[in-house]
Amino acid sequence: MKVLNILAGAGASSYSGIILIVVMIVAMYFLMIRPQRKQQQKHQSTLSQLQKGDHVITIGRLHGVVDEINREAGTVTLDCDGIYLVFDLNAIATVNQKTAVPETASDSAATETPSASSQSTEPTTESAEPADSAAPTADDNKTDK
User: Fold this and answer.
1) Cβ of 117: how many Cβ atoms within 10 Å?
2) Domain 51-127: which CATH class?
3) Contact in structure between 20 and 3 (CB atoms under 8 Å)
4) CB neighbours of 88 closer than 8 A, spacing ≥ 6?
5) C-alpha gyration radius of the chain
6) Which one, of 66, 71, 33, lies nearest residue 52 by Cα?
7) What percent of the chain has pLDDT over 90?
8) Cα(20)–Cα(73) distance, rounded to whole angstroms?
9) In sequence order, what DSSP letters do the residues of 57-109 get, joined into one string?
10) Where does the chain cross the membrane (predicted)?
């Protein structure tokens, strides 16, 4: 308000107050409203590209895989470790596009399984037998008393 009084006292026209308010509204538009609209448009385009098999996170931070999309009803069915849940499309917070992770994971698992099992099978079996027979248990302590 002091700014308006200073402008009025200096002989500025009464339109300077209105100009100041208009400048503030324009600044608010460019600093707040415009970025929010861009974010909403980006989210809508992401939802329009949603496909079966995509990994998503809901607004409640529930992670799942898209099983079915019903665009007419605006719903999506998520597979959350065997539990199928139906959500509104707007409940999807983030979308991670499906990747080739299952193929590489199965390849690496097949590669690691023979080497890991051949190395760890023999020492585990041999070391487990003497440890079980030599170690006293809690039941042994109770029977001694």
Assistant:
1) 9
2) mainly beta
3) yes
4) 74, 75, 76
5) 33
6) 66
7) 53
8) 47
9) EETT--EEEEEEEETTTTEEEEEETTEEEEEEGGGEEEEE---SHHHHHHHHH
10) 12-32
Q: What are phi and psi of 98, to 5 degrees?
A: -65, 145
> What span, in angstroms and rounded, lies between the C-alpha atoms of 136 and 145?
14
Return the SS3 of 56.
strand
Tens-place pLDDT, residues 86-131: 999 999 999 997 754 444 444 545 555 554 444 544 444 444 445 5
3-state secondary structure of 145: coil
Distance from C-alpha of 27 to C-alpha of 35, rounded to nearest angstrom: 12
Which residue matches tokens 């039941």?
139
Phi-psi category of residue 137: left, alpha or beta, with phi > 0 → left and psi -120 to 50 → alpha = beta
The ranges assigned to domains in the chain are: 1-49, 51-127
AA letter at 62: L
**Six-digit token pair at 53?**
């098999």
pLDDT score at 42:
94
CA distance 86 to 62: 12
Does the model's pTM come out above 0.70? Answer: no
